[in-house]
Amino acid sequence: MASSFWGQCMPSTTGSQVQQQTMLKELEVPIIETDQEFLQGLLRKTESNPDLEVINVEATPCTSVDDNYLSSATTVVVTGRTKSAHTFKKLLLIKRHPANNTRRHVFRCDPAFKNEAAAFGKVIPALAEFSKCELPFPSCLHATSQRIVLQDIQSHGFTMGNKQKGLDLHHSKLVMKELGRFHGISLAMKCSNKSAFEGTKSNIQELIFVPEAHPIFSASLENALKMALMSLEVYKGITDVAIVEAVHKLRMLKGTVFQRMQALVKPSEPLSVICHGDFWINNLLFRYNGEIAEEVKFVDLQVVRYASLSTDILHFLTTSTEPEVSTDYRDELVQTYHKSLCQVLEELAPGALHVSLGDIYNQIEIHALYGLLIGFLLLPAITAENKLASNENFDSAVRSLTPKYYKKVRDLVLDFIDRGFI
Predict the structure, then answer these.
(1) Contact 404/299 with Cβ under 8 angstroms?
(2) Predicted structure pTM score
(3) Which one, 86, 137, 242, 355, has the greatest CB density within 10 A?
(4) Is it true that domain 158-418 has CATH number 3.90.1200?
């Protein structure tokens, strides 16, 4: 799945031929992805079957340069047989570093990949062991700083939602319920066994809002704010006093957006948890029973961080729902999240920490600016009629903005005004 931050922070480049050559290189399947010996050993271990034999491996690249800047991915179909002559087929997703070294350096791909490998290889297993519960992530068979092997959940019927349309109330409640459960497990472990939790947490690091990443993200965040302010100026009416006042306040953020985001992702105790970090519709896959979504999985954990639980909530609510869901049913969604979180806390750490609904709302209010700025960053891509070019400069990006973008920015700002966040 695409990573939202990197997708919006591609620096302007020249030379389409160079980009095309890079893409072709990324789409090549490395020999290691079809390594039968490695896959056979891996499956023997994960299936607890030392006699399992891999007969054939078919690999197909599934990630283009414009889809994910932090890693390249390959879908692998493994066929084989067991000692009892039963045949089997396994569908896997193998993620690895991009082949292009320049891109690896520019986008800090190595620490990003290390973060995701730690999330799948250490953090999620620790939370699962503590809770004795299955977490809403794809099963991981192997995770190192060089390669991650996951269950290919799309082959099991999981599909992505439509980012332009957004998720309806049913999908959104399903997401918030699972997010509350995920955060609740993290919070319960922190309360019940702080030393073990600290050890688990130490495996991940803040990837985006750190000084080393300033050259990548600062300009993109400033441009996102600039575009949002421009759109508000264009579409404000003579009597839009609230919009005029909001524009005045938002202008004061110019030149400080990255620093403000750095402050907003710092832990806010006691309600900081292990967060997904890039929690929007493109990183959510759903499985259906007929036309009804009954299960959701969270994918792409490069940006996993330890921060206020409200950052994931806000990231989702400002980017991923149908317009009327985020405005008319936000309280219902937050209540769904809170109920799920409290149920897990009561089961795993009874009496350790009381979290009221007011506590959740307080965190949302404190970190509201995070959600607003994430919305500004992602709305150009969410509302684009065509896929945005990764090398698009500011002027061409403005020309590609759609009426839907202008409306969504205005609605988002008005909603934040109504809630007292601006």
Answers:
(1) no
(2) 0.90
(3) 137
(4) yes
